[in-house]
Design a protein that fits this description.
63% of the residues lie in helices and 9% in strands. By secondary structure, the protein is an alpha/beta fold.
Length: 286
């Protein structure tokens, strides 16, 4: 929706002539809708930026939000949306920041007895709707980006690779192991093997609720990749239920060492490296 040159001129005149009243009333409407979540000073600053950007865009002649002259307005709307998304506001609360301008314009035009007042309001209203849609789309893109970043951070946190002994690293897996997470596990394990020069890696699946063919394939690929880096892998956390499932599915781990617990796996690795270990004996009553 684009305004004609005449409509753009009337909009510019209206916004210029009643600048103080418009920004004041606009900020008041937003303060009421946002229920004090932003300060009056912050709301007024944002409203003044929007007000100025709309005037600059309208001065270009025919007002079109997609035009080059509206570039600053699009930038202000996008920045407003990103800020609202990061501050935890909803899409509706963000759109209200733009749509409130319609109420302000209506109040001004209601007092105008000119024949063009109604037509101008309809045109201005359609323009504000377009601005609101642009704001909503920018908000959604920012929110999706935030969610994707948080998901990536959680994925990294859920796949730690820790050094538990000299020459021994461990990957304690918790939760479902899908393709995306398996790729992260493989990359982080291989990088840790390079950084530490460790010849042994323990993949602990105690926290994996179930092992199916897909999960087993992911584990085997990780083991093969580690072997190509010159490291041997031991799989620990093979509980009785998981062992029965593996047998029932006919999954073969070949010559890969498997242990019931992480402690057993560590003892196995220490024996391979020549470190003496002793099991703690229960204390006898005298």
């Amino acid at each position: 929706m684009a305004l004609s040159a005449e409509e753009s001129g009337r909009l510019t005149g209206l916004l210029d002539e009643h600048a103080e009243r418009i920004t004041q009333r606009w900020a008041e409407l937003l303060a009421a809708s946002l229920r004090g979540r932003l300060s009056q000073a912050e709301l007024r600053r944002q409203v003044q930026e929007l007000h100025g950007a709309v005037i600059e865009a309208a001065r270009g002649g025919g007002f079109d939000l997609e035009s080059e002259s509206a570039g600053e307005l699009r930038a202000v709307l996008a920045e407003l949306s990103r800020g609202r998304a990061r501050q935890g506001f909803t899409a509706t609360e963000t759109a209200i920041s733009v749509y409130a301008l319609k109420d302000v314009l209506l109040e001004l035009l209601e007092a105008d007895a000119a024949d063009t007042a109604l037509r101008d309001y309809v045109a201005f209203s359609a323009l504000v709707d377009q601005m609101g849609l642009f704001t909503f789309e920018s908000f959604v893109r920012t929110r999706e980006s935030l969610i994707a970043d948080q998901a990536e951070q959680l994925l990294e946190l859920s796949t730690p690779v820790v050094k538990i002994w000299e020459g021994v690293v461990a990957v304690p897996l918790v939760g479902t192991l899908d393709s995306a997470r398996a790729q992260v596990v493989m990359e982080r394990l291989l990088q840790t093997l390079v950084d530490t020069g460790s010849p042994y890696a323990i993949i602990d699946i105690t926290g994996v609720p179930a092992v199916d063919t897909q999960v087993a394939q992911h584990i085997l690929k990780t083991v093969v990749a580690a072997r190509l880096m010159g490291a041997d892998c031991i799989i620990s956390g093979i509980r009785p239920q998981i062992a029965q499932t593996i047998v029932a599915l006919g999954i073969e781990f070949g010559d890969i060492a498997t242990k019931a617990s992480l402690a057993d796996a560590l003892r196995h690795v220490l024996r391979l490296t020549g470190v003496e270990t002793a099991r703690r004996q229960p204390r006898r009553e005298s």
